[in-house]
Structure formats: structure tokens, C-alpha cells
Design a protein that fits this description.
Helix content is 35%, strand content 31%. By secondary structure, the protein is α/β, with parallel strands linked by helices. It has one domain: Vaccinia Virus protein VP39 (Rossmann fold, 3-Layer(aba) Sandwich). The strands form 2 sheets. It has a 5-stranded parallel sheet, sandwiched between helices. A 4-stranded antiparallel sheet has the order 1-2-3-4. Strand 3 and strand 4 form a beta hairpin. It is globular, with a radius of gyration of 16 Å. The structure holds S-adenosylmethionine. The site of S-adenosylmethionine has 21 residues, from strand 4, helix 3, strand 6 and helix 5.
Length: 186
């Protein structure tokens, strides 16, 4: 059984589709059916993020909004800003909001743009965050590590003193990349 053959489309914009299949949501991008997010990943996100998000939070990569919706109900989170480069992903998230439970009253600001362009803009206006979470990659490989290497110094400059930076860790990452990934966030 395959989600895009046997599931039902519940939100759609451009070449971005969200399928519902056996109770889970699947974010599928492009004709090649690239699977970018699954709602069941909430268990792993909860395990990794725990109660770390607090204050003014910044997230890179909206996807299905699983992480957004988790952060928005954490008691110590004051605001959430999410950077997303794909306008169709933002549109399907808006379509899905009616399906999600009430995500509370916290302000959620979604910035449409590539993180590479948005970070310098945030720096320019001296915007600061207490927590930054990277989740704009689908696996941790050499390219992802190079990309994070270039972004983390900028992230440190928009991080308030005492704040924290985290990145989604894919549990299937080979050890040679996993070690490098962890040292990036030290
Ligand atoms: C793995 S998904 C994020 C899953 C999400 N955290 C969730 O809870 O469903 C990655 C997302 O990052 C976005 N993305 C990829 N590269 C990006 C970039 N350079 N800047 C901003 N967003 C990016 C993709 O369009 C996709 O929506």
C-alpha cells in the first residue's frame, strides 16, 4: 500500500499535495513524489525537542507544520517565526489549519523565502531569537552539513544570549555524518 496511490488528497497547491493515508498526513512535493514530512514524526520531534523551545522561537522549514504546531502549544514559547521557501507548502499549511486542533493564541509569523536570503535580512534589522530550530533538509549528508556549516554562524548572531540552536537529527544518519552534525551544534 502506498500513500499516494491509496491515500486521499486533503490539501493541494501547485505540485505540493498532502495525502491522508491510514490516519497519517504525508507531504508530497513534485511529480517524483518526494516525501518531505509525515504527521506521525511528531513522536520523534517531541523526543528531540522536549521542552527546549522557549521565548521567541525561529524555525527553518515549515513542511506539514508538525513542529510549528508542537511549539505553538508549549507553555514557555512566546512567539514563533517560521521560514519556508516554497509558497505552495505555505498555502497547503493554511488549508490544513482547519483540520488541526486549535493551535492556541500565540502569534505565528511565516516568512516566505530561502533561509540563505532571510537570515541576512533578520541580521540587518537586528532581530533576536531565544531558540532556533533547523529542519529544512530531508537527510543528513555531506551537502546538508556544508549548508548547516554556512548557516550556523549567522544563526549564532541572531540568537539572544543564553539561547539555543538545534537541528532535526535523522536517526538513520550514518555515524561519520552524525558525529560532524553533533559537533556543529556544540
Ligand atoms: C523536512 S520538511 C520540514 C518538516 C516540518 N518541520 C514539519 O514539522 O512538518 C523541510 C521543509 O523545508 C523547506 N525548505 C527546504 N529548503 C529550504 C530553505 N533553503 N529555506 C527555507 N525552507 C526550506 C521545504 O520546502 C520543506 O517544507
Amino acid at each position: 500500500m502506498i500513500y499516494f496511490e491509496d491515500g486521499e488528497i486533503v490539501a493541494s497547491s501547485g505540485d505540493v499535495n498532502v495525502y491522508k493515508y491510514e490516519g497519517d498526513l504525508y507531504l508530497d512535493i513534485g511529480p517524483g513524489h518526494n516525501l518531505w514530512a509525515i504527521s506521525s514524526e511528531i513522536k520523534e520531534y517531541r523526543h528531540q525537542l522536549r521542552k527546549h523551545p522557549r521565548g521567541n522561537c525561529l524555525e527553518v522549514g515549515l513542511g506539514l507544520g508538525v513542529v510549528s504546531n508542537y511549539m505553538l502549544i508549549l507553555p514557555n514559547v512566546k512567539s514563533l517565526t517560521t521560514i519556508e521557501k516554497n509558497k505552495d507548502v505555505v498555502e497547503v499549511y493554511r488549508q490544513l489549519l482547519v483540520l488541526y486542533e486549535d493551535p492556541g493564541n500565540i502569534h505565528h509569523d511565516i516568512i516566505l523565502g530561502d533561509v540563505v536570503d532571510v537570515f541576512p535580512r533578520l541580521l540587518k534589522v537586528n532581530k533576536k531569537f531565544d531558540f532556533i530550530f533547523f529542519d529544512h533538509y530531508s537527510l543528513i549528508d555531506e551537502d546538508t552539513l556544508i549548508n548547516l556549516h554556512s548557516l550556523i554562524p549567522m544563526a549564532k548572531r541572531i540568537l539572544r544570549d543564553g539561547g539555543a540552536i538545534m537541528g532535526w537529527f535523522d536517526p538513520y544518519t550514518p555515524s561519520e555524518f552524525a558525529n560532524e552534525f553533533y559537533t556543529l551544534f556544540k
